[in-house]
Structures are given as C-alpha cells and as structure tokens.
Amino acid sequence: xxxxxxxxxxxxxxxxxxxxxxxxxKKQIVPxxxxxxxxxxxxxxxxxxxxxxxxxxxxxxxxxxCKTNSDVARKFxxxxxxVYLAYFSNDKLKVGTAASYRKYERLLEQGALYSxxxxxxxxxxxxxxxxxxxxxxxxxxxxxxxxxxxxxxIDREQEEIEKMLMDEYKSILQSVDDKxxxxxxxxxxxxFMNISxxxxxxxxxxxxxxxxxxxxxxxxxxxxxxxxxPEGVSGEIEAVVGSLILLKKxxxxxxxxxxxxxxxxxxxxxxxxGERIDGSADKGER
Amino acid sequence: Mxxxxxxxxxxxxxxxxxxxxxxxxxxxxxxxxxxxxxxx
Lengths: 286, 40
Prior knowledge:
By secondary structure, chain A is of the alpha+beta class. Helices cover 26% and strands 32% of the residues of chain A.
C-alpha cells in the first residue's frame, strides 16, 4: 500500500474569535452568531455561546446537586452515560464519564488509547456520582495536557495494560458500596493500538541490545519538542492522540497541543508531496 | 495558497481525527483529514 505523504502548515494570525458552541440537541457545532472578538482574552468562547452550550455550570459536577438552569443540559444529562477507566503513560489511571451515544469518541477526544468501560448509568448525574466515588479511592479524575505531552510514549505492552485495568476494576468493585455496584458492568476493554503503534514506531529507537542477563534493553525514547502554545504548525502528521498531534519535520519530532489554537484565525496549507511504500497495515481497530 | 480560516479543534468521527475549520466568508464548516491517506 502506498502512503500519500503530506505536509500541513498552519500559521496563527493575530485574531481570535469565539469558537461557537456544541448544540446538544442537534448534536452539531454552531458558529458564534456575532463572531465575537476574543483576541487578548484567555477564553475561546463568548459568554453567550458558553451559556448556549448548556455545560458551563455542569463542568466539575459530582452528581450531588444539579445546579444548571439549562433545559438543554438537563435533557442531555437524562440520557444514558458510561463510566470509564483510562490508562495513560507511566501507569496513570483516570476515571471519567461519557454520554453512551458517543462513548468511543469521548475516549479518542481524551487521548485514552487504553481503557475499560466499567459502569453504565441511566443518566449523567449517577455517572458523575460513580466517578466521584471511584475518584475518592485515589484514582485521578483529570489528566492535564502537560502530563499527556510529557508522557506521550506508552512503553508498557498492551497485555500488561489490560491486566492493570482489569485488576483495578476488581479492586474498585470490592471497595464501592452496593448502591454503586448495581451499575457496574462486565468491563469492556478498548484499545486504539493503531494510534499507539504509530507513536511507538516513530518515537521508540529501533535498535535494541541484549543485556548481560539475556533480556533486551528497554527501547530508548527519541527526543521530541513539546509545543503547548503553538504559533504555527508545520510538518507531516504522524499520529493524533486526543488534541495532541505528533509532527515530523526534517527528521525531528514535536508534539503539539492543538487545543490552544481553538478560536484563532489561521492560515492553513496542506499539500501532498509524494508517495512512499508502507509495509505495515493500518489496523483501525477500536 | 494559504487561506484564512478559524480553527475549531480536532474532532473525532468514525475513529478518525479531523481538523475543523470555520470559513466566516462563506459561512461554512470544513473538515480536513489528519490521518494518513492511502492509495493502492
């Protein structure tokens, strides 16, 4: 199979505008009606769009008290939700919730390449309560982009990760009360190995040597630049993990946080510059 | 040729990442594929 190799080039301009909001009813992104100028602001969404999204009050909800006045948010919250446990590099586990109708997209948005769904709730409020109980056991409920950028490469073998997630599931099940247990499901393991393989292929050194004890050296990590607030993006996209892209240019790698570009007007160029043979297949597995 | 658009983030659909742009001039949302293109 031939890969069509392409370069992208994105240059940030000096102008940032409101990015609009996600309409929970229509399930689509709506641009800002007034295209509000937010240049110089730390925000990428105006107050009106933030309110229209319905989620401004809901961030940080732990399921104890519903504070929203938004009918849209309440309707969305009344839909089924799943609770997931995700694995991040260096053995960091994170608990989170996802609306059931888009649970896999949620994992991909988070860059959660390995995870299990461990509970299913009839609504978002109960899902948040479960998340909160699990978080009380010492499992992180947030993993910030800095951590994800600094720990971009997952060394551990996928079998070990699956075992870790399953063991943690059993531990959680033993620790939560019966009120929570009734929502637990047989864990559904997910991996996006097509993505993690691309990261490893690019960022792990290929040559390994036998150690004196008959084992293999751990593969070395290649250096990569961490760009948390890009002024521009240039190179070939090798992999995308959540909102982070792994770029290659002149044999150098960088991991760029694209979330920080949201709302900015940019100059965008994309061109195909040739073909090369690829011996590996893109598995595209969930 | 560079075209000025508003970047709205990376969106995931059918396990594929796409960059979403908004063109204010023509009031149009545009998706650009982030993943590798294959040709047989």
